[in-house]
Amino acid sequence: MQKFRFYAVRQRGSHMTMYCDGRPVPVPKHDPIAEGALRAILEKLA
């Protein structure tokens, strides 16, 4: 997952994952996305 170069930040009480260029990838804390599912989503967007 390092090739995507994203990092997690907290914004307005929600867990957010940000791409290195600043595009947000929301991960709601009440419905967390598993790492495998998140990787699949990022690969589709890349």
UniProtKB/TrEMBL annotation:
<dbReference type="GO" id="GO:0003729">
    <property type="term" value="F:mRNA binding"/>
</dbReference>
<dbReference type="InterPro" id="IPR012933">
    <property type="entry name" value="HicA_mRNA_interferase"/>
</dbReference>
<dbReference type="GO" id="GO:0004519">
    <property type="term" value="F:endonuclease activity"/>
</dbReference>
<keyword id="KW-0378">Hydrolase</keyword>
<keyword id="KW-0346">Stress response</keyword>
<dbReference type="InterPro" id="IPR038570">
    <property type="entry name" value="HicA_sf"/>
</dbReference>
<keyword id="KW-1277">Toxin-antitoxin system</keyword>
<keyword id="KW-0694">RNA-binding</keyword>
<protein>
    <recommendedName>
        <fullName>YcfA family protein</fullName>
    </recommendedName>
</protein>
<dbReference type="Pfam" id="PF07927">
    <property type="entry name" value="HicA_toxin"/>
</dbReference>
<keyword id="KW-0540">Nuclease</keyword>
<keyword id="KW-0255">Endonuclease</keyword>
<dbReference type="GO" id="GO:0016787">
    <property type="term" value="F:hydrolase activity"/>
</dbReference>
